[in-house]
Amino acid sequence: MKKLFLMNIAMFMAFGCHQAVKGQGENTWYHVASCERIKTRLAPTVCGKCRLKQEEDKLLVIPAQDCPAYETYRCTTKEGKTFLINTLGCKPYEDKR
Fold this sequence. Notes:
Layout: H1 2-14, E1 20-22, E2 28-31, E3 34-38, E4 50-55, E5 58-63, E6 72-76, E7 82-86, E8 93-94
Antiparallel strand pairs: 1-2, 2-5, 3-6, 4-5, 6-7, 7-8
């Protein structure tokens, strides 16, 4: 299980999506059709570095000032492609399911 977690961490560092648009300040957003939270029993007990919030057709990535819980989301773009993003890496990576 630990090996699987480490592989997931390596994947989100290696892959990225190019739909990002810089917003005001340090906030970033991605154009999405939808996002769903992935519930997992193996979520690490670490502080997230950002908060993820969906507003209409945008997924907002907001830098955290505190210690948000680790969460992972699967999002779908309007073109039908999916990507994963979590509150630790704060950048999308390829969904290989």
